[in-house]
TrEMBL record:
Membrane topology designation: Multi-pass membrane protein
Pfam assignment, any one: PEMT
Upper lineage: Archaea, Thermoproteota, Thermoprotei, Desulfurococcales, Pyrodictiaceae
Compartments (UniProt record): Endomembrane system
Protein name (record): Isoprenylcysteine carboxylmethyltransferase family protein
Organism (species): Pyrodictium abyssi
Major place of residence: membrane
């Protein structure tokens, strides 16, 4: 669902592929967490490890989650600052990288956004 928010709100015109965002997305789960997609993807291996009930797999999954979250902040933040500049720096001051609060998780797991943004494009 977070990808849908990027597709709907991150592009000011048609013809841009995924990852070719030209607008900073701050709607939906991005209003309370800068990296919701990375947050959820980092924990997927832990879910699998718990299903396997293997202590070794759980340990590896926890280490993997920490590494993915650290890389998300390091690499994605650098790219976002280069792409959006001061706008992203202000957003970074307001919104944490990861937010496991129930309110924020509800936004991330809630209804999908519309197929097209209702707000005027810049």
């Amino acid at each position: 669902m977070t990808g849908r928010y990027l597709a709907v709100y991150g592009k000011t015109g048609p013809g841009r592929g995924f990852g070719e965002l030209d607008r900073l997305v701050t709607e939906g789960p991005y209003s309370c967490m800068r990296h919701p997609m990375h947050f959820f993807l980092a924990w997927l291996p832990l879910a699998v490890a718990l299903l396997l009930a293997s202590p070794g797999a759980v340990l590896v999954a926890l280490l993997e989650a920490a590494l993915v979250l650290a890389l998300a902040v390091t690499l994605d933040e650098r790219e976002s600052i280069a792409r959006f500049g001061d706008e992203y720096l202000a957003y970074r001051r307001r919104v944490p990288a990861f937010n496991p609060s129930p309110h924020c998780l509800a936004k991330a797991l809630g209804p999908r956004p519309p197929k097209h943004s209702r707000e005027p494009r810049r």
